[in-house]
Amino acid sequence: MVAIDGGMHRTRLEEVSLGMVVLGLIFSSMLYGIMLTQTYKYFQRFRRDPPLVKLLVFAVWLLNTVSVFFVAHASWYYLVTTGPRGLSIWSLNVELALSMAMSGISETFLAARVYKLSGRKIWLTGILLMLALLHFGSGEVAAVEFLLLKRFAKFGSVKVPSIIRLSSAAVTDTAIAVSLCYFLQKKRTGFKKDDEVVNYLILFSINSGLLTSLISIASLATYLLVPRTWVYTALCFLLSRLYANTFLCSLNSRQILLSSGSDNEKHLPKGARFRPRRSTWSVAGDKSPTQIDVFVVTETITDGPQILTSAKVNTGIPLFQGVFRSV
Asked: Staple partner for 28: which of 96, 100, 237, 304, CB 3.0–4.6 Å?
């Protein structure tokens, strides 16, 4: 008979840290599933988007897929093969590098949206892009240094890049969210349907920016205060998925604009006809919004000759047609 030694003991700290890896993998997988749904909806709804945008969506999907694979690989290493907890497995650091790429795409995309909504304010967009670049650059530097050091015990010597990465992420996401809310608020027209769209987009901007900012702050706090619990590692796993979902939700949020326009059309008279000046959608539109003129033709029947009258009606449908385009 072979005696099986079940006496492998872990300290409380090891249990907590490995538990964080499990939780990070579980919630990352859930967010990855949401990302797959968003990707599918995008390619179903916006088939006419420019190739560059479709390429970015594909890149985010690919990066996120590979990133989740590396999270699973690291979890397998620590939980199944019982690799030493003091060793930083290479897949953790590669996952961090991929996460920085996804955050760079998401933040640059949202900065471009701020550029158009603000009336092409270069100085504001430049600040947002510099913050995004600082976030991306510090994250890649930290990933490379962690990969070279290999052991967590030595990571204290390279805390600066990690602190800059997490703090700049919180500042960048907050600045983008505040900018979007401010300029969206100025787009109100008084039309009910348009204002409902504004409210929806403001709520989305607050939720996405606030969520990533809070998680970045929590990651920074746990990294500085309780680094050996690996809570910050689990939070960083979530950040990767959140950036991908933010990017895809920003693209898919244009669907509500299309739905709003369709709802407005239902309330028009039967004889109304539309004469659109433009019909393309993108993230970055023209400086002046597209206008749709609606001409209502009425016919009055009398004993004499028929009289045709026409009236021009402003429906308020086109408010965002030139604001949220695909490129």
From this structure: 237
Q: Which residues contact 41 (CB under 8 A, 6 or more apart)?
A: 252, 255
CA atoms within 13 A on the CB side of 62: 8
CB 256 within 8 A of CB 204: no
β-pairing, 307-313 vs 272-276, is unpaired
At 75 the three-state DSSP class reads helix
Q: Tell me the C-alpha distance between 327 and 324, whole Å.
A: 9
Residues 27-85: pLDDT tens digits? 999 999 999 999 999 999 999 999 999 999 999 999 999 999 999 999 999 988 877 77
Q: pTM value?
A: 0.77
What DSSP state is assigned to residue 9? -
pLDDT in tens, 7-24: 567 788 888 999 999 999
How far is the CA of 152 from the CAs of 15, 78, 202, 249, 267, in angstroms?
17, 14, 41, 35, 64
**Do residues 284 and 116 lie in contact, with contact meaning Cβ atoms separated by under 8 Å?**
yes
Question: How many whole angstroms separate alpha carbon 100 and alpha carbon 125?
Answer: 20
